[in-house]
Protein 1
Amino acid sequence: MLLMVSTCKGFLFFNSDEDSIKEEIFRHGTISTYQDSLPAKEAYFVEIDKNIYIKDYHKWVENFLIEVNGKLDYSIDEYILAKANPGFVDSLKKSDYYYLKEKGIISYDPKEGLFLGKGTKVFIPDSMMVFSIKQDILQTRLDINIPEFLCRVYQYKKVIDSFYIRIGKNEQKYLAMAGKVMNLKTRTGEGKIVRINKEPQFINPVDNKKYTGTKRDDGIVTQLPNIPWLETELDGVKYGQMIHPTTNKSTIGKAASNGCIGLRESDMWALYFYAPVNTPVRIRYDLKGIDSLGNTIYFKDIYSWKWRKPNKKESAAGESVLFNHLCYCGKD
């Protein structure tokens, strides 16, 4: 029996025998109590009866969970399901345009990729494993350091993952969407994820026009991905500052957005599953850090804030403007 079966599309799945499940769960960074919960009477597998494509992922997982939870005396959500089936995230990450290009494939619509093939067996975790995953999620937080261009994921006070990012430009610009000149610097503060947008509209804030395609770094125009965006609330204020994918990988590590925090597509899929609503977030501006060898390192003062904490006007980037369900970072 297979937990996730290999397909001709080359997505990663793994054997469902006890030893293989334990090995995969351990390899993906979960805590040892997972192993103690397997196998259990409540755990079982559901076989997928048709191909599921990435464009249908959000609706499929919603319906799948309704069906599964109707049979359980405990409940699971999308995050628990993904943690119990690491192949989910692997499959979604492989829709990244630049990942596929490295494999010699040009994808004109990332939503058309295969998520799960017919015959895939999805693992439904037992109640002990569900409890363990929930504890992990409750102990997860995001830490973003602007001049380092880095987003760290902490769990139990330990960094378990990290992603390079792009940040807001060091300039002011008139945005037709806002109807005024806006400071484009990424805001700092402490808060949480307050909303997840699974059906974003793409609107260029400069001219306030909607767009459906994007020009990639290589000049090829493709459709936009359906990767969810995370909205932050910082120090009690919702500015509409999002964490979302960028379709231009070359802008990672640069001040290139209109204020939002951008990740490459594969990294944004991974971050999404770490950060449900209410996940704590800290966005800071620290020019000093520690490298992997324990040495002190210094980062470029992108916003000329130097060693001081930015004042409210600088950090808040002017007046609060919230564009619900929109990306106002501009055409990537």
Protein 2
Amino acid sequence: MRAVQLVKFGEPREALQYTDLPDPKPGPGEVVVKIEAAGVCGRDLVVRKGAFPHVKPPVVPGHEGVGRVVEVGPGVEKELVGARVFLSAVYDGTCEYCRRGLENLCRNAELLGESRHGTYAEYVLLPARFVHPFHGVDPRAAVVATCPLSTAVYALRHVDVDGRRVLVVGAGGTGLYIAQLASVRGGEVYVSTRSREKAKVLSELGIKTAGEGDKDFDVVVDTVGSPTFERSLKLVKRNGVVVVIGNVTGERALISPALIILRQVKVVGSMAFRPWDIYEALDLLKRGLIRPFYTEYRLEDAARAHEDMERGIVFGRAVLIP
């Protein structure tokens, strides 16, 4: 099969290699999925730079993927062949977090594109219970549900935005969807972005661009991380909530605890999503409540997609088509 491998850490054209790999063969309880569309997440860029010690090249990157089951191993129902599915990380299902419905915090998770080969490929091999059938959404749009929109769904489970002033810091691949979803859920939503194009599109959706004088927000959702974290703490009102989901640089943030203590700010981390968050995200797309944004690239152009994302010229999600 054709695939993109992370062969070393570094710049996109040095680190990402378009190559041939053996076609995967399913063992007991496993399935092979032919990828129709794979998303490029901001996390993929951080992985490529070597920020996560558990990632050992060579590995096929990518955790966002939609496709059809083309082969099943022993013990898997044959009726699954042909089903369109989205993929999830491999959870153990037995740790204290999995038992509480927090599979996103599983102690022993195998993450696609990091601990095992991911979706920058023609085919992906997974245990059958980690592929999830769906219908009614185009695969390119569905990729939006597999991470950025489901991340938004999960992040807004931590805080009530109805009737509140909400600031979304960053209008990248995830910020676009958090802003839309917060608006759907009744928030008065502002976005902090330097992109005039993004500001124009968001204004058409009823979402305002934050100006220099805007502050005292009830809720701030930071999709960037270290470069903006201190500013997010200053822009939220006293007794407000800052939800942090971004880590785009992988760097540490240096802040004064006084920003949190003296203004009694609640800081909440939100880690990814669970499979049922993806189903909710798909339903939002089906009902037309969320507008998907994506830019298509050929699989062999994954390095260019990474470069374009780093330059900030991708609107919405970069989607690889094998």
Protein 3
Amino acid sequence: MKLSRLNIFLLLIILLISFFSISYLDFTKSKLNRLEILNEQFELEYNLENKYLEFKLFQKNIGLDLVFLNNLYSMRDLVDSSNFSIESKNKLANELKQYMLNKPDFYQISYIDELGLEQVKVENRDGVIEIISEDKLQNKFDTIYFQDSLKLTQGDFYLSEINLNIEYLELDTRTLLNETYFIPSIRYGIPLYDKNNVRQGILIINVFANPFLDIIRFEGLDFSQLTLIDNDGYYVANKNYLKEFGAQTKTYDNFFTDNPQISKDIFKNFNASYMTVGDNYFRFKYIYPTLKNFEIYNSSNKIYGEDSEKIYYLILVNKLNSNE
């Protein structure tokens, strides 16, 4: 049966309408997908900025703690006398113990003399604040943080790398429910000067890093992966905590091995803040522990000098997979 011209015309109209409807729906869907991705990217950047601000806030109050402890009467008495009598040391230790009762994030407070010998040390051991006995005090002369602290002058502050705590030359651990955990920590310090402006050692606050790292581990967005890495790509904070501090634990888990499509050279562009690699969108922010973005006071950059970012820095990375 032959179709009339009218029927043919109507059929063409129906086909054209169907074609353009499908095309429009595909275009609308594609546009919505793009808008959804853009919205997710915006949330990603907002989330990253919030975590960065929390990161900075986590640090700043420690400076006030150091100043307060430096001015304790028992601290001044011990530093000015420099004879380290048992009575003076016990008095300071008890005051530090009382102070730590209200500081659950503090792991240790130590007074270390110019020879690297711990003179007073108070420790939070599983929630119990203990004064470390004389026979358990250590020589910290060869530690990185003590050697770095020797470069401090009066008014300077020290801020260490975030790493796993070491005691008696071994990684410090805790056991909970038959599972062993390492202890990430950050050390803050100031040089101690007596009334004659003679340096008599350093005051170190060793802080549990987990409260801060948990902000990154557990508070990312559902559609993104938030991590903190160091300049070598080793994880400092990851939702899978077993991947963290691979260089120290000898697992060697690394951001670049998990993302082989990314070159280490990409993160050497310190002015960059985002990149797209395949279907993945990365937003990142550099954190320099000894420079303006992440310091207690400007003088702390004297530890490493002007090129500190070439020695140690952190990168807060948020990864969005557009296929998810």
Protein 4
Amino acid sequence: MLKKILSQVISVIDVAITIIASLVFLGVIALGGFALYDAVSVVDSANLGDDVLRLRPSRDDGGDFSLKDLKQINGDIVGWIKVDNTNIDYPILQSTDNSEYLNLDYKKEYAAAGSIILDYRNRSFLDDYSILYGHHMSKNRMFSDVARFEDADFFENNGEGRVYAEEGVYRLKILAYAEVSAFDLKVYGLSALAKGENDAIVQYFQSKAKRVRSDIGAVDKIVILSTCDDSVKANRDVALGALELISDGEAEIDGAIDKDIESESDGDSASNQVVEAESSHEKEARAFPVKKVALTIMFIGVVGIFIKLVVDKLR
């Protein structure tokens, strides 16, 4: 009698393990499909829609640029950046902090790729020193092409571009490339550098740079292009660029955009906010824990197989 009951229990366990094994197999297939979908959707989130692409400025515009139509899409659009021979060709967003557009696109819709962000402490590009942030995405999207300036040949033969803003069109020239700490306040402590201290930051970049032009000279307006470093999470790939106004726009150059530069302590706080936001973008871009779920499913499968082997031995 006991032997019969034990045999029935073993049969039930055997069926249960078979069901679990089948579910694990189906779970692995489903997870693989989701991971593929997730990877594609993350890349696609960096794509621009036709509504904004038709308003994209070009060199053929003769220097004319208006933000009016772009601002009808989103009032937080403050400009556009294009770097020749790269995929950097995006609208620039600015909010009341540096984290709002970390995972929002130009339409304020969720996008793992986020947007190109102008530091909220800047007054458009009227300051001596401006900072732009962008994610380091796959397939050379967003600001990942900043890292290409580490290559000597690419750096030597490229680096021209345009920054289109409310006050006019700027010629952009990349002068140096460096990898810096995400906590480097000489780079990200904007308030200390926005008031005529460009010579100091140029000298600092020259000391840190992996690539630097020999003919930098004095720079009236600096813009920093900052993105995450793929190899070291606490580091940033940074390109230092010079801006030269070549065409006046809709705003007067002196004081048209009314925004006070904050105190030194506020600048440090805002810099840390950006550091924390950028440091977490890989995690936010992969909000679904694919690896953890996959390992859990595999563990359940291995345990199930082990139990089945034990049950077979007991028969």
